[in-house]
Amino acid sequence: MNHDKPSLGDKIQSTLGPFASKVNGNIYITSVRDAMLAYMPFTFIASIFLIIAFFPIQQVTDFITMVLRTEDASVWQEKLLYVNNATLAIGGLLVVISLAKSLAEKLETNVLQCVLTAFVSFLLLTPLDAMEAGTFLDITRVSAQSMFLAIIVGIFSTVLYKKIEGKGIKIKMPAAVPPAVSGPFESVIPSFLVIMTIWVIRIIIEALFNSDAMTLINGTLGIPLTMLGGSLVGMVVVKIFEQFLWFFGLHGTSIIQAVMDPIHQVLEDQNRVASVAGEIPTNIISMSFRNHFASIGVVGAIIAILIVAKSK
Hints:
Layout: H1 8-25, H2 27-53, H3 58-68, H4 73-86, H5 91-107, H6 111-124, E1 129-131, E2 134-136, H7 147-166, H8 179-186, H9 188-209, H10 213-229, H11 232-247, H12 252-276, H13 287-293, H14 297-308
Helix pairs in contact: 2-4, 2-5, 2-12, 5-6, 5-7, 6-7, 6-9, 7-9, 10-12, 11-12
């Protein structure tokens, strides 16, 4: 009979294993992760145009201006910013759409209607700014700065839609009506009740706090999280915990990603806004820092293996 006591590794594995399984199986966390992964390609696309537009070497900028024969660099830089305004500048919208889609698929409900309802709900909580000619939507309110609001709205509106639909509260069409026709009618009441709820929430926020949802959430939730995620100590702790999970065979990146990606994307967007405004970015810790300096990747792992591995 084997009377050997379980090792420390076995104890940690038995403790963290169920936890990791619950995290990886949580539909809300995985939906946030899916949304951030769907948003990621657009950050790379926009970054290419931003690097060209605001190249760190002045001689390169002057050379492009000379080749294009423009009066100054701002003429062609403005053209390159078109891509930025259609990608990073609407990061919140992209996240709420992709998150609602991912969660609706997991909840097995009307995906298209949940996406549209979440989209409308997000815009409903985004106040318009006044000007002499009327009102307009400030694009900064739907950028990555609204990431936390987008996540909350995407989850809340989709879950509420599913619950209302599950109660059978909908317009029921005859069986002879094709699904393409009956589907939109059946979604009217669930979408209406979700949007009505979001509208009431906005009215309450304006009445009690004289503010808007994004400002309130970023002030109460976003600032502490960005302070933690934007510090060197916070980054070190996160990466140690991530590698600690990997050491015991758990997918550390998948577990950490859903929590840290929105925080680092907000910090990344603050740097983008500063760069576009001609200012010096202030956030050293951001998504770019994490990807390029805090993640060793496959190549780094192979080098580490070659250096320390004992097996030939």
